[in-house]
Amino acid sequence: MSEATADELMAITASRLLADHRVVFAGVGMPLLASALARRRQAPNLTIVLEGGIIGTSLLPGHLPISTNEMRAAYGAQMLTDITDIFLFAQRGFFDYGFLGAAQVDQYGNINTSVIGSVEHPKVRLPGSGGANDIISLCNEIFIVTQHEPRRFVERVDFITSPGYLSGDDSREQAGLLFGRIGAVVTDLALMDFEPGSKRMRLRALQPGVTVEQVRQQTGFGLLTADTVGQLPPPTAEELQIYRTLREGVPA
């Protein structure tokens, strides 16, 4: 089995965070791959929900959807409803996990997927929120998955598309977001969480072969460090095989 790529490291690390008998609201791409991997490994009773109204998808290996609205995303689904019902379920607290990516994420877990630069004169226009604002506001626990580089990990996002802990401390609750938390940030370098008091991002564990200094060099703000920084176990041959089969299909 060949060495894991950066994407495989992130997806496999993220998949390990998902427990059995839970519900995950996943976007397409890496969040969906991580969720499907967990379902085929340690969480066979994990229910995967997609924004397009699909509940309980099992996915067809090698034919993963590129949109939550295409019918191949519904392969093996338990229920087909509509987007309104999905967000009503989220408002009622039915979703244990939400999975999000990020173009930018700051020290308080705020996510930008709208613009790079000013809103009036953006350097880059990004896809926008989609359902991400609802997911981070309504799901019980949020996991963010993204590559670890200074342009993504910024002290303050250019635009808050999806609110994390806003300005820290109790500012999220003061803004009316009374439940849900940003549980972890997974990258190709490390696993981070948030310090309970200040709500600032905190380094908890390193990917294999990575040092604390490397993580700090790739982070555009002063990253807190846990008293003990752990070492994440490398992907197993089983995890890599499941991931690659999901992505590429069953080998001939």
If you had to describe this structure to a student in words, what would you say it looks like?
It is a single chain. This protein has 252 residues and is α/β, with parallel strands linked by helices. The protein has helices spanning 6-15, 30-40, 83-91, 132-138, 171-174, 212-217, 237-248, and strands at residues 23-25, 47-50, 54-55, 79-80, 97-100, 104-105, 111-112, 115-117, 122-125, 141-145, 181-186, 190-194, 201-206, 224-231. Strands 4-3-2-1-5-10-11-12-13-14 form a ten-stranded mixed beta sheet, with helices on both faces. Helix 1 packs across helix 2 (30-40) and helix 2 packs across helix 7. The protein is globular, with a radius of gyration of 18 Å. It starts with 5 loop residues before the first helix and ends with a helix.
Tally of distinct domains: 1
Strand content: 15-25%
Indicate the radius of gyration in whole angstroms.
18 Å
What is the level 1 CATH name?
Alpha Beta
Q: Biggest β-sheet, characterized?
A: 10 strands, mixed
Work out the helicity level: 10-25%
Oligomer: single chain
CATH architecture: 3-Layer(aba) Sandwich
| The named CATH superfamily | Glutaconate Coenzyme A-transferase
List the defining traits of the structure above.
252 residues; alpha/beta; Glutaconate Coenzyme A-transferase; two-stranded antiparallel sheet; globular
Give the SSE map.
Layout: H1 6-15, E1 23-25, H2 30-40, E2 47-50, E3 54-55, E4 79-80, H3 83-91, E5 97-100, E6 104-105, E7 111-112, E8 115-117, E9 122-125, H4 132-138, E10 141-145, H5 171-174, E11 181-186, E12 190-194, E13 201-206, H6 212-217, E14 224-231, H7 237-248
Parallel strand pairs: 1-2, 1-5, 5-10, 10-11, 13-14
Antiparallel strand pairs: 2-3, 3-4, 6-7, 8-9, 11-12, 12-13
